[in-house]
Amino acid sequence: MFSFQEQISAATKNNLETQLALITALTGKAFESVEKVIELNMNAAKAALDESTGNARQLLAAKGPQEFLALSASQAQPNAEKLASYGRHILTIVSGLQSEVAKATETQITEHSRKLATLVDEVSKNAPAGSENVVAFMKSAIASANAGYEQLSKSTKQAVEAMEVNMNTAAAQMTQAAGKTGARVAAVASVKK
């Protein structure tokens, strides 16, 4: 049988090891996401440079204002769609990170809560008479911390879902606006012929 101090010391050490494991896991996931964003940005920058060069050449080769306007209109729609796609990719990366963080955190917190509850039960068995209020307080604190974590987890999931909806709505609006702009420019170009 362990003494009270040995139990607390072992629990503290275990808690620190658990926290270190969680921080290590979360840091790794964050770095993976940053790498994905950097790779996405590099690919997008390369593609944008190539496309901009091609578009500029097309515009410079235009035979007149109508052709110039028509080319400009035809380039607007794909650019808006690419921007929307880029936003969706970023959202996928962020959403994936949030999911991984939530999963790692939930696993660690569940295990930590279980161990802490076991420790409180063990300590309460060996606790001196009259310490029932302290044990009840500790159990209440554990329950409150678990409830707080669950609420934080739910709020985070709701925020990510709202961000996804907003991003999809913005992407659809951008694509729609680019299409309307392209149609207007094409209409103006055909009238001036």
Overall description:
There is one protein chain. The protein has 193 residues and is an all-alpha fold. Helix content is 93%, strand content 0%. It has helices at residues 4-60, 65-126, 132-191. The longest helix is centred in the middle third of the chain and has 62 residues, at 65-126.
In short:
With 193 residues, this protein is an all-alpha fold.
User: Total number of helical segments?
Assistant: 3
Helical residues, percent:
over 70%
Strand content: under 5%
Mean pLDDT equals: 79
pLDDT < 50 runs, ≥5 residues: none
Rg is 29 Å
| Number of E-type strands | 0
Q: Could you say which structural class the secondary elements and strand pairing correspond to?
A: mainly alpha
Distance between the termini: 96 Å
Shape: elongated
Major sheet summary line: none
Helix-strand topology string: HHH
List keywords for this structure.
193 residues, mainly alpha, 3 helices
Q: Which SSEs are present, and which pair or pack?
A:
Layout: H1 4-60, H2 65-126, H3 132-191
